[in-house]
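User: quick one, sequence for these C-alpha coordinates?
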Protein backbone atom coordinates (compact mmCIF):
# COMPACT_ATOMS: atom_id res chain seq x y z
CA UNK A 1 0.00 0.00 0.00
CA UNK A 2 1.45 3.37 -0.93
CA UNK A 3 1.64 6.08 1.71
CA UNK A 4 -1.51 7.95 0.57
CA UNK A 5 -3.45 4.66 0.66
CA UNK A 6 -2.13 3.86 4.11
CA UNK A 7 -3.07 7.30 5.28
CA UNK A 8 -6.58 6.87 3.84
CA UNK A 9 -6.83 3.57 5.66
CA UNK A 10 -5.66 5.13 8.93
CA UNK A 11 -8.22 7.88 8.41
CA UNK A 12 -10.87 5.24 7.85
CA UNK A 13 -9.88 3.52 11.09
CA UNK A 14 -9.98 6.86 12.81
CA UNK A 15 -13.38 7.69 11.36
CA UNK A 16 -12.52 10.82 9.37
CA UNK A 17 -9.80 12.40 7.28
CA UNK A 18 -6.38 12.41 8.89
CA UNK A 19 -6.50 16.20 9.02
CA UNK A 20 -9.77 16.37 10.91
CA UNK A 21 -9.74 13.10 12.72
CA UNK A 22 -11.82 12.22 15.70
CA UNK A 23 -9.46 10.12 17.76
CA UNK A 24 -10.48 6.65 18.81
CA UNK A 25 -9.71 5.83 22.40
CA UNK A 26 -7.11 3.20 21.43
CA UNK A 27 -4.85 5.78 19.86
CA UNK A 28 -4.45 7.81 23.00
CA UNK A 29 -1.62 10.27 22.76
CA UNK A 30 -2.22 10.98 19.06
CA UNK A 31 -3.05 14.32 17.54
CA UNK A 32 -4.12 15.45 14.07
CA UNK A 33 -0.41 15.88 13.28
CA UNK A 34 0.54 12.37 14.25
CA UNK A 35 1.31 10.41 17.36
CA UNK A 36 2.32 12.69 20.23
CA UNK A 37 3.87 15.28 17.98
CA UNK A 38 5.44 12.90 15.45
CA UNK A 39 4.28 14.11 12.03
CA UNK A 40 2.54 11.61 9.78
CA UNK A 41 4.51 10.02 7.02
CA UNK A 42 7.91 9.48 8.60
CA UNK A 43 11.16 11.34 8.25
CA UNK A 44 14.09 10.71 5.96
CA UNK A 45 16.36 8.02 7.42
CA UNK A 46 19.00 10.62 8.37
CA UNK A 47 16.56 13.20 9.81
CA UNK A 48 17.72 12.88 13.42
CA UNK A 49 15.27 15.52 14.70
CA UNK A 50 12.34 13.44 13.42
CA UNK A 51 13.61 10.20 14.95
CA UNK A 52 14.37 11.95 18.26
CA UNK A 53 10.65 12.74 18.38
CA UNK A 54 9.87 9.10 17.70
CA UNK A 55 12.25 8.08 20.49
CA UNK A 56 10.37 10.38 22.86
CA UNK A 57 7.32 8.12 22.41
CA UNK A 58 9.12 5.42 24.39
CA UNK A 59 9.67 5.12 28.14
CA UNK A 60 13.14 3.56 27.82
CA UNK A 61 15.23 4.19 30.96
CA UNK A 62 17.38 7.32 30.59
CA UNK A 63 20.92 6.42 29.60
CA UNK A 64 20.03 2.89 28.50
CA UNK A 65 20.91 2.10 24.89
CA UNK A 66 18.64 -0.72 23.87
CA UNK A 67 19.77 -2.63 20.79
CA UNK A 68 17.94 -5.88 21.38
CA UNK A 69 14.91 -5.60 19.07
CA UNK A 70 15.54 -9.10 17.73
CA UNK A 71 14.60 -10.39 21.17
CA UNK A 72 12.03 -8.04 22.74
CA UNK A 73 10.96 -4.46 22.10
CA UNK A 74 9.46 -1.83 24.35
CA UNK A 75 6.10 -0.37 23.31
CA UNK A 76 5.58 3.37 22.89
CA UNK A 77 3.30 5.23 25.28
CA UNK A 78 0.13 5.11 23.12
CA UNK A 79 0.38 1.32 22.94
CA UNK A 80 1.21 0.91 26.62
CA UNK A 81 -1.69 3.17 27.55
CA UNK A 82 -4.12 1.26 25.36
CA UNK A 83 -3.14 -2.05 26.98
CA UNK A 84 -3.37 -0.53 30.47
CA UNK A 85 -6.75 1.03 29.78
CA UNK A 86 -8.27 -2.23 28.52
CA UNK A 87 -6.66 -4.17 31.37
CA UNK A 88 -8.09 -1.79 33.96
CA UNK A 89 -11.49 -1.97 32.29
CA UNK A 90 -11.60 -5.79 32.49
CA UNK A 91 -10.46 -5.71 36.10
CA UNK A 92 -13.13 -3.16 36.93
CA UNK A 93 -15.94 -5.16 35.30
CA UNK A 94 -15.30 -8.72 34.08
CA UNK A 95 -18.94 -9.36 33.19
CA UNK A 96 -19.91 -10.86 29.83
CA UNK A 97 -21.72 -7.61 29.12
CA UNK A 98 -18.69 -5.40 29.63
CA UNK A 99 -16.32 -7.70 27.75
CA UNK A 100 -18.70 -8.10 24.79
CA UNK A 101 -17.01 -5.16 23.06
CA UNK A 102 -13.77 -7.11 22.68
CA UNK A 103 -15.28 -9.19 19.87
CA UNK A 104 -15.68 -6.13 17.69
CA UNK A 105 -12.36 -4.61 18.74
CA UNK A 106 -10.61 -7.85 17.88
CA UNK A 107 -12.08 -7.77 14.37
CA UNK A 108 -10.85 -4.16 14.05
CA UNK A 109 -7.41 -5.37 15.07
CA UNK A 110 -7.56 -8.15 12.48
CA UNK A 111 -8.52 -5.63 9.81
CA UNK A 112 -5.72 -3.26 10.82
CA UNK A 113 -3.17 -6.09 10.74
CA UNK A 114 -4.42 -7.31 7.35
CA UNK A 115 -4.00 -3.83 5.87
CA UNK A 116 -0.62 -3.45 7.49
CA UNK A 117 0.81 -6.69 6.04
CA UNK A 118 -0.98 -6.53 2.68
CA UNK A 119 -3.34 -9.45 3.18
CA UNK A 120 -7.08 -9.96 3.35
CA UNK A 121 -8.80 -9.96 6.73
CA UNK A 122 -9.74 -13.63 6.42
CA UNK A 123 -6.05 -14.54 6.05
CA UNK A 124 -5.07 -13.29 9.51
CA UNK A 125 -5.09 -15.22 12.79
CA UNK A 126 -4.09 -13.35 15.94
CA UNK A 127 -1.84 -15.74 17.83
CA UNK A 128 0.31 -15.49 20.96
CA UNK A 129 3.65 -15.27 19.18
CA UNK A 130 5.75 -16.58 16.31
CA UNK A 131 6.43 -19.81 18.18
CA UNK A 132 2.74 -20.62 18.29
CA UNK A 133 2.24 -19.70 14.63
CA UNK A 134 5.17 -21.87 13.54
CA UNK A 135 3.94 -24.83 15.57
CA UNK A 136 0.42 -24.41 14.18
CA UNK A 137 1.83 -24.95 10.71
CA UNK A 138 4.20 -27.76 11.74
CA UNK A 139 1.36 -29.61 13.48
CA UNK A 140 -1.38 -28.76 11.01
CA UNK A 141 -0.15 -30.13 7.69
CA UNK A 142 -0.88 -33.62 6.37
CA UNK A 143 2.56 -35.14 5.90
CA UNK A 144 3.66 -38.76 6.00
CA UNK A 145 6.21 -41.33 4.84
CA UNK A 146 7.82 -40.37 1.54
CA UNK A 147 7.23 -36.64 2.10
CA UNK A 148 10.11 -34.27 2.72
CA UNK A 149 10.37 -30.90 4.45
CA UNK A 150 13.27 -28.57 3.62
CA UNK A 151 14.49 -26.19 6.33
CA UNK A 152 17.24 -23.61 6.70
CA UNK A 153 19.66 -24.83 9.37
CA UNK A 154 19.49 -21.31 10.87
CA UNK A 155 15.75 -21.61 11.63
CA UNK A 156 14.58 -20.88 15.15
CA UNK A 157 13.83 -24.06 17.20
CA UNK A 158 10.07 -23.54 16.75
CA UNK A 159 10.59 -23.95 13.01
CA UNK A 160 13.40 -26.46 13.29
CA UNK A 161 13.42 -29.11 16.02
CA UNK A 162 9.61 -28.83 16.02
CA UNK A 163 9.65 -30.45 12.55
CA UNK A 164 11.87 -33.30 13.83
CA UNK A 165 9.44 -34.05 16.65
CA UNK A 166 6.53 -34.11 14.23
CA UNK A 167 8.49 -36.20 11.72
CA UNK A 168 9.20 -38.84 14.37
CA UNK A 169 5.48 -39.28 14.83
CA UNK A 170 4.36 -39.15 11.18
CA UNK A 171 7.32 -40.58 9.32
CA UNK A 172 8.21 -37.79 6.88
CA UNK A 173 11.82 -36.69 6.45
CA UNK A 174 13.47 -33.36 7.28
CA UNK A 175 16.44 -31.98 5.33
CA UNK A 176 18.42 -28.89 6.26
CA UNK A 177 20.08 -26.40 3.96
CA UNK A 178 23.34 -24.71 4.95
CA UNK A 179 23.88 -21.41 3.18
CA UNK A 180 27.43 -20.39 2.21
CA UNK A 181 28.94 -18.48 5.16
CA UNK A 182 29.76 -14.85 4.51
CA UNK A 183 28.15 -14.77 1.08
CA UNK A 184 27.13 -11.44 -0.38
CA UNK A 185 25.43 -13.03 -3.37
CA UNK A 186 21.64 -13.49 -3.28
CA UNK A 187 21.97 -16.00 -6.12
CA UNK A 188 24.09 -18.26 -3.90
CA UNK A 189 21.49 -18.11 -1.14
CA UNK A 190 18.72 -18.91 -3.62
CA UNK A 191 20.65 -21.75 -5.26
CA UNK A 192 21.41 -23.40 -1.93
CA UNK A 193 17.68 -23.93 -1.39
CA UNK A 194 16.63 -24.67 -4.94
CA UNK A 195 19.25 -27.39 -5.31
CA UNK A 196 17.84 -29.07 -2.18
CA UNK A 197 14.28 -29.34 -3.54
CA UNK A 198 13.24 -32.75 -4.86
CA UNK A 199 10.05 -34.21 -6.24
CA UNK A 200 9.29 -35.42 -2.69
CA UNK A 201 9.50 -31.93 -1.16
CA UNK A 202 6.15 -30.82 0.24
CA UNK A 203 7.20 -27.86 2.42
CA UNK A 204 9.97 -25.26 2.32
CA UNK A 205 10.25 -23.47 5.65
CA UNK A 206 12.72 -20.73 6.53
CA UNK A 207 13.32 -17.62 8.60
CA UNK A 208 12.80 -14.52 6.49
CA UNK A 209 15.76 -13.05 8.38
CA UNK A 210 17.95 -15.14 10.65
CA UNK A 211 18.07 -14.24 14.33
CA UNK A 212 21.49 -15.90 14.64
CA UNK A 213 23.34 -14.45 11.63
CA UNK A 214 21.20 -11.53 10.46
CA UNK A 215 21.12 -12.95 6.90
CA UNK A 216 17.94 -12.10 4.99
CA UNK A 217 16.87 -14.69 2.42
CA UNK A 218 15.42 -13.86 -1.01
CA UNK A 219 12.00 -14.92 0.27
CA UNK A 220 9.92 -13.79 -2.69
CA UNK A 221 12.04 -15.72 -5.18
CA UNK A 222 12.08 -18.82 -2.96
CA UNK A 223 8.30 -18.72 -2.51
CA UNK A 224 7.85 -18.33 -6.28
CA UNK A 225 9.99 -21.36 -7.15
CA UNK A 226 8.27 -23.41 -4.45
CA UNK A 227 4.83 -22.44 -5.75
CA UNK A 228 5.80 -23.43 -9.31
CA UNK A 229 6.63 -26.88 -7.95
CA UNK A 230 3.53 -27.24 -5.76
CA UNK A 231 5.56 -26.86 -2.53
CA UNK A 232 4.05 -25.03 0.46
CA UNK A 233 6.11 -22.26 2.10
CA UNK A 234 6.30 -21.15 5.73
CA UNK A 235 8.14 -17.87 6.20
CA UNK A 236 9.04 -17.14 9.83
CA UNK A 237 8.84 -13.37 10.01
CA UNK A 238 9.85 -12.87 13.65
CA UNK A 239 12.70 -10.60 12.48
CA UNK A 240 10.83 -8.82 9.67
CA UNK A 241 7.26 -8.20 10.93
CA UNK A 242 7.39 -4.58 12.12
CA UNK A 243 10.69 -3.85 10.39
CA UNK A 244 10.07 -4.51 6.68
CA UNK A 245 7.30 -2.82 4.73
CA UNK A 246 5.56 -6.15 4.13
CA UNK A 247 3.10 -7.15 1.41
CA UNK A 248 2.41 -10.79 2.14
CA UNK A 249 0.23 -11.55 -0.88
CA UNK A 250 3.06 -10.19 -2.99
CA UNK A 251 5.72 -12.11 -1.02
CA UNK A 252 3.86 -15.20 -2.18
CA UNK A 253 4.19 -17.42 0.89
CA UNK A 254 1.47 -19.79 2.08
CA UNK A 255 2.12 -19.15 5.77
CA UNK A 256 3.82 -16.28 7.57
CA UNK A 257 4.35 -15.84 11.31
CA UNK A 258 5.36 -12.91 13.50
CA UNK A 259 5.43 -11.58 17.06
CA UNK A 260 3.88 -8.30 18.14
CA UNK A 261 6.46 -7.82 20.92
CA UNK A 262 9.49 -7.68 18.62
CA UNK A 263 9.89 -5.16 15.76
CA UNK A 264 6.16 -4.37 15.76
CA UNK A 265 6.67 -2.73 19.24
CA UNK A 266 3.16 -3.95 20.04
CA UNK A 267 1.57 -5.64 23.03
CA UNK A 268 3.44 -8.54 24.65
CA UNK A 269 2.38 -12.13 23.99
CA UNK A 270 0.49 -11.41 20.82
CA UNK A 271 1.39 -12.39 17.28
CA UNK A 272 0.23 -13.01 13.78
CA UNK A 273 -0.26 -16.06 11.60
CA UNK A 274 -1.01 -15.37 7.94
CA UNK A 275 -2.58 -18.25 6.04
CA UNK A 276 -3.05 -17.60 2.34
CA UNK A 277 -6.67 -18.13 1.29
CA UNK A 278 -5.76 -20.75 -1.32
CA UNK A 279 -3.85 -22.79 1.31
CA UNK A 280 -6.32 -22.67 4.18
CA UNK A 281 -7.83 -26.07 3.42
CA UNK A 282 -4.32 -27.62 3.51
CA UNK A 283 -3.88 -26.69 7.20
CA UNK A 284 -5.69 -28.39 10.08
CA UNK A 285 -6.24 -26.31 13.22
CA UNK A 286 -4.22 -27.52 16.21
CA UNK A 287 -6.66 -26.18 18.79
CA UNK A 288 -10.41 -26.52 18.69
CA UNK A 289 -12.50 -24.80 21.33
CA UNK A 290 -15.44 -22.58 22.09
CA UNK A 291 -16.65 -20.71 19.03
CA UNK A 292 -15.27 -23.23 16.53
CA UNK A 293 -18.52 -23.40 14.55
CA UNK A 294 -18.44 -19.66 13.87
CA UNK A 295 -14.70 -19.51 13.31
CA UNK A 296 -14.62 -22.35 10.78
CA UNK A 297 -16.41 -20.22 8.21
CA UNK A 298 -14.12 -17.23 8.81
CA UNK A 299 -10.90 -18.23 7.11
CA UNK A 300 -7.78 -18.00 9.24
CA UNK A 301 -9.78 -17.21 12.37
CA UNK A 302 -10.12 -20.95 12.92
CA UNK A 303 -6.38 -21.11 13.66
CA UNK A 304 -6.67 -18.94 16.78
CA UNK A 305 -9.47 -20.78 18.50
CA UNK A 306 -7.90 -21.51 21.88
CA UNK A 307 -9.81 -20.29 24.91
CA UNK A 308 -9.55 -17.16 27.01
CA UNK A 309 -6.93 -14.69 25.84
CA UNK A 310 -5.58 -11.47 27.27
CA UNK A 311 -8.13 -9.38 25.35
CA UNK A 312 -6.28 -6.17 26.19
CA UNK A 313 -3.17 -7.39 24.36
CA UNK A 314 -5.08 -8.88 21.44
CA UNK A 315 -7.12 -5.77 20.64
CA UNK A 316 -4.14 -3.44 21.11
CA UNK A 317 -2.64 -4.94 17.93
CA UNK A 318 -4.83 -2.32 16.17
CA UNK A 319 -3.10 0.52 18.02
CA UNK A 320 0.30 -0.96 17.15
CA UNK A 321 -0.62 -1.14 13.46
CA UNK A 322 -1.85 2.48 13.61
CA UNK A 323 1.44 3.56 15.21
CA UNK A 324 3.37 2.04 12.30
CA UNK A 325 0.98 3.49 9.73
CA UNK A 326 1.31 6.95 11.29
CA UNK A 327 5.10 6.96 10.91
CA UNK A 328 5.01 4.93 7.72
CA UNK A 329 6.28 1.35 7.25
CA UNK A 330 8.61 2.39 4.41
CA UNK A 331 10.13 5.12 6.60
CA UNK A 332 10.65 2.63 9.46
CA UNK A 333 12.30 0.14 7.12
CA UNK A 334 14.61 2.83 5.75
CA UNK A 335 15.51 4.11 9.22
CA UNK A 336 16.33 0.67 10.64
CA UNK A 337 18.37 -0.10 7.53
CA UNK A 338 20.30 3.17 7.97
CA UNK A 339 21.00 2.42 11.65
CA UNK A 340 22.20 -1.12 10.90
CA UNK A 341 24.39 0.06 8.00
CA UNK A 342 25.93 2.78 10.15
CA UNK A 343 26.66 0.20 12.85
CA UNK A 344 28.41 -2.09 10.37
CA UNK A 345 30.40 0.74 8.80
CA UNK A 346 31.52 2.25 12.10
CA UNK A 347 32.36 -1.11 13.71
CA UNK A 348 34.52 -2.05 10.76
CA UNK A 349 36.28 1.37 10.88
CA UNK A 350 36.87 1.17 14.64
CA UNK A 351 37.85 -2.47 15.22
CA UNK A 352 40.74 -4.00 13.27
CA UNK A 353 40.08 -7.68 12.58
CA UNK A 354 36.32 -7.48 13.14
CA UNK A 355 34.24 -10.01 11.16
CA UNK A 356 30.56 -9.86 10.33
CA UNK A 357 28.26 -12.87 10.23
CA UNK A 358 25.70 -10.47 8.76
CA UNK A 359 26.08 -9.41 5.11
CA UNK A 360 27.16 -5.79 4.62
CA UNK A 361 24.66 -5.45 1.75
CA UNK A 362 21.35 -4.14 3.20
CA UNK A 363 19.39 -6.13 0.60
CA UNK A 364 20.65 -9.34 2.25
CA UNK A 365 20.22 -8.15 5.84
CA UNK A 366 17.98 -6.07 8.09
CA UNK A 367 18.08 -4.72 11.61
CA UNK A 368 20.06 -7.65 13.07
CA UNK A 369 23.85 -7.17 13.09
CA UNK A 370 26.00 -10.06 14.34
CA UNK A 371 29.66 -9.25 14.69
CA UNK A 372 32.60 -11.45 15.75
CA UNK A 373 35.22 -9.55 17.75
CA UNK A 374 38.88 -10.49 17.48
CA UNK A 375 39.46 -11.02 21.23
CA UNK A 376 37.71 -12.30 24.32
CA UNK A 377 34.58 -14.24 25.15
CA UNK A 378 31.48 -12.78 23.51
CA UNK A 379 29.37 -13.89 26.46
CA UNK A 380 31.57 -11.94 28.88
CA UNK A 381 31.64 -8.92 26.58
CA UNK A 382 27.84 -9.00 26.34
CA UNK A 383 27.61 -8.92 30.16
CA UNK A 384 30.19 -6.13 30.41
CA UNK A 385 28.42 -4.03 27.76
CA UNK A 386 25.32 -3.95 29.93
CA UNK A 387 27.06 -3.66 33.30
CA UNK A 388 29.56 -0.97 32.40
CA UNK A 389 28.16 0.74 29.29
CA UNK A 390 24.38 0.44 29.76
CA UNK A 391 24.07 -1.21 26.35
CA UNK A 392 21.40 -3.92 25.99
CA UNK A 393 22.27 -6.40 23.24
CA UNK A 394 22.76 -10.19 22.93
CA UNK A 395 25.57 -12.70 22.53
CA UNK A 396 25.45 -15.56 20.03
CA UNK A 397 27.24 -18.89 20.27
CA UNK A 398 28.17 -21.79 18.00
CA UNK A 399 28.78 -21.05 14.33
CA UNK A 400 27.68 -17.45 14.79
CA UNK A 401 29.69 -16.71 17.91
CA UNK A 402 29.52 -12.95 18.32
CA UNK A 403 27.71 -9.93 19.65
CA UNK A 404 24.25 -9.22 18.25
CA UNK A 405 23.15 -5.60 18.02
CA UNK A 406 19.63 -4.98 16.77
CA UNK A 407 18.72 -1.29 16.67
CA UNK A 408 15.20 -0.04 16.02
CA UNK A 409 13.26 3.17 15.45
CA UNK A 410 13.85 4.29 19.05
CA UNK A 411 17.64 4.42 18.54
CA UNK A 412 19.55 7.46 17.34
CA UNK A 413 22.74 7.75 15.30
CA UNK A 414 24.42 9.15 18.40
CA UNK A 415 23.55 5.92 20.19
CA UNK A 416 25.10 3.99 17.30
CA UNK A 417 28.34 5.89 17.88
CA UNK A 418 28.26 5.26 21.64
CA UNK A 419 27.50 1.56 21.10
CA UNK A 420 30.39 1.22 18.64
CA UNK A 421 32.76 2.90 21.11
CA UNK A 422 31.62 0.55 23.87
CA UNK A 423 32.04 -2.57 21.71
CA UNK A 424 35.45 -1.34 20.47
CA UNK A 425 36.57 -0.84 24.07
CA UNK A 426 36.12 -4.58 24.70
CA UNK A 427 37.31 -5.84 21.32
C1 LIG B 1 13.32 -16.29 13.76
C2 LIG B 1 12.56 -16.44 15.05
N1 LIG B 1 11.47 -17.23 15.09
C3 LIG B 1 10.74 -17.37 16.20
C4 LIG B 1 11.09 -16.72 17.37
C5 LIG B 1 10.25 -16.91 18.58
O1 LIG B 1 9.59 -15.72 18.90
P1 LIG B 1 8.55 -15.72 20.11
O2 LIG B 1 9.31 -16.08 21.33
O3 LIG B 1 8.02 -14.33 20.14
O4 LIG B 1 7.53 -16.74 19.78
C6 LIG B 1 12.22 -15.92 17.38
C7 LIG B 1 12.66 -15.25 18.62
O5 LIG B 1 13.68 -14.63 18.72
C8 LIG B 1 12.97 -15.77 16.19
O6 LIG B 1 14.05 -14.97 16.14
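Assistant:
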Amino acid sequence: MSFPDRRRFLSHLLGGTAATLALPSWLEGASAEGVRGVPYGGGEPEDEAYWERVKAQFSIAPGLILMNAANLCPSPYPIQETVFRHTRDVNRDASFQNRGKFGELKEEARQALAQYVGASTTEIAITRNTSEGNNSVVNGLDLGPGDEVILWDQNHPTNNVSWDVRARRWGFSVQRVTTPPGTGDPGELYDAFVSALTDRTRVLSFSHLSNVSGIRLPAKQLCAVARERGILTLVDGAQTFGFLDLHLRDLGCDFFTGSSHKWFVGPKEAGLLFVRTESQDRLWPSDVGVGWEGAEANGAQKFENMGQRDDAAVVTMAAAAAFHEAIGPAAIEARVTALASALKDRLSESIPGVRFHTPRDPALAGGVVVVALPNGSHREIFEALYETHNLGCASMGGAFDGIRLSPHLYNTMEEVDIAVEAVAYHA
